Amino acid sequence: MRIPILRPMEKSVLKGDNIVSVNEQMVQDIVQEVMAKLQISADVTGGHGVFKDMNDAIAAAQKAQKIVCRMSMDQREQIISNIRTKIKEHAEILARMGVQETGMGNVGHKILKHQLVAEKTPGTEDITTTAWSGDKGLTLIEMGPFGVIGAITPCTNPSETVLCNTIGMLAGGNTVVFNPHPAAIKTSIYAINLLNEASLEAGGPDNIACTVEKPTLESSNVMMKHKAIQLIAATGGPGVVTAVLSSGRRGIGAGAGNPPALVDETADIRKAAQDIVNGCTFDNNLPCIAEKEIVAVDSVVDELMHYMVNEQGCYLASKEEQDKLTAVVLKDGRLNRKCVGRDAKTLLSMIGVTVPDNIRCITFEGPKEHPLIAEELMMPILGVVRAKDFDDAVEQAVWLEHGNRHSAHIHSKNIDNITKYAKAIDTAILVKNGPSYAALGFGGEGFCTFTIASRTGEGLTSASTFTKRRRCVMTESLCIR
Ligand code: NAD
């Protein structure tokens, strides 16, 4: 799948396999159509997984799970196959809704993220069995469902996470109750409706995925304390992961990151500039895995920044502009939500700087403690930290990752350097010589997920993550060797 570089003012839609340009009137028509559908979705109560009360949502998901766990693996797979079809059909509408409702991200890139979820999220093939057979009989380790899983989802990838989580959880024989981010509730509800429609059409039950109309911290607490919920998957910042891990329930904690991209003197510097800026600007830097800052060895910093500025659409911010950006982006020391997921041109306009449409990222050189470098911003601002040598670069990158153990990236052709960095930074994801989105399966091997369990160590989650291990033992029989 090719990732198009979308300039901030470009409009695009998916027609078949192609992303094509559309005019402003067409965009307005699509947005109006989406908003009309949004209103319908938001008004739906009690149907297709949407409830007023969290207890009712959980009860409905429990009822559905009793049916799901009696279904054959083949039947589960038929529902998942229909979910994949529906995601592809609704990718554009979900992408537009996400941007419209949250004000964050890039429609073209969000379409690609939905296609990726549809195509590369593992289904029932991820549910496998381990067997020992011998003189004393046959023992199996089977992956069984937890039942109803509680899931808390972020506003940065709202429908992507809801859809990806549900495919994996359903493949494992579970149903799911979501407490989505309130700022993305309409988009999440639209996705939940879609999931249940897909199930019903494929002969499955309604309410395989449920939610409440108005998710709050209170509804989240009800979910975390409910005796039917044995596993909670939390995707979000440090607050939610800590809350879930303190709940007394088993928790999968997919928390914050601040991924550094390290560049050493053996890298293809021109390609590194291209890969890093492509990764950083994807969906306006919303993905938690995206490059958030660069650490480069002294001898390559100038060349790297030359390519970033002259070939990759980076705007070189002066000291004064950096200060103004810091004041806007980190208002009173807190991350300004109005800046998260905005494109570079919009961010610069907030400090009175007008730039052409081909500017897609903001860069500058600064120390690792610079607030625009040290903080996880989730916007296309890419500070460059100069290191005196490779060991110094590793030390600074490890500091910048803040022990999240989430994601890091490196551009190097020196295997010893790559190995040293990988061991020191100890992250769930480490992309070498490519853009960060290769870790999600875009231009890289492997499956897709939008829940990367950095804090609790499961790493990239898939159907098997959402199952419990059961030992199934037959003594003195069934060994036919
Ligand atoms: P957020 O932490 O503000 O919200 C995430 C979810 O948690 C929302 O549903 C929110 O309502 C809920 N929440 C927040 N505090 C809570 C609490 N104390 N108790 C219960 N629920 C709570 O994050 P966001 O802005 O929506 O998403 C961005 C953050 O999520 C970034 O830090 C990003 O790195 C992280 N993220 C991580 C992954 C991953 O896979 N590791 C994926 C996406 C986003």
Give a brief rundown of this model:
With 481 residues, the chain is α/β, with parallel strands linked by helices. Helices cover 41% and strands 21% of the residues. Nicotinamide-adenine-dinucleotide is lined by residues 152-157, 180-181, 217, 220, 235-237, 239-240, 243, 254-257, 288, 376, 450-452, 454.
Characterise the protein shown here.
The chain has 481 residues and is an alpha/beta fold. The protein folds into two domains: 12-38 and 47-255 and 460-469, Aldehyde Dehydrogenase, Chain A, domain 1; 260-441, Aldehyde Dehydrogenase, Chain A, domain 2 (3-Layer(aba) Sandwich), CATH 3.40.309.10. It is built from 15 helices and 22 strands. It has helices at residues 24-43, 54-68, 73-102, 107-120, 158-171, 185-201, 217-225, 238-245, 269-281, 298-311, 319-329, 344-349, 371-374, 390-401, 415-425; strands spanning 12-15, 18-21, 50-51, 130-134, 137-145, 148-153, 175-180, 209-212, 229-235, 250-254, 260-263, 293-297, 314-316, 330-331, 334-335, 361-365, 381-387, 407-411, 429-432, 452-453, 459-460, 467-475. It has a seven-stranded parallel beta sheet, sandwiched between helices. β4 (130-134) and β5 form a beta hairpin. The structure holds nicotinamide-adenine-dinucleotide (NAD). Nicotinamide-adenine-dinucleotide binds at residues 152-157, 180-181, 217, 220, 235-237, 239-240, 243, 254-257, 288, 376, 450-452, 454.
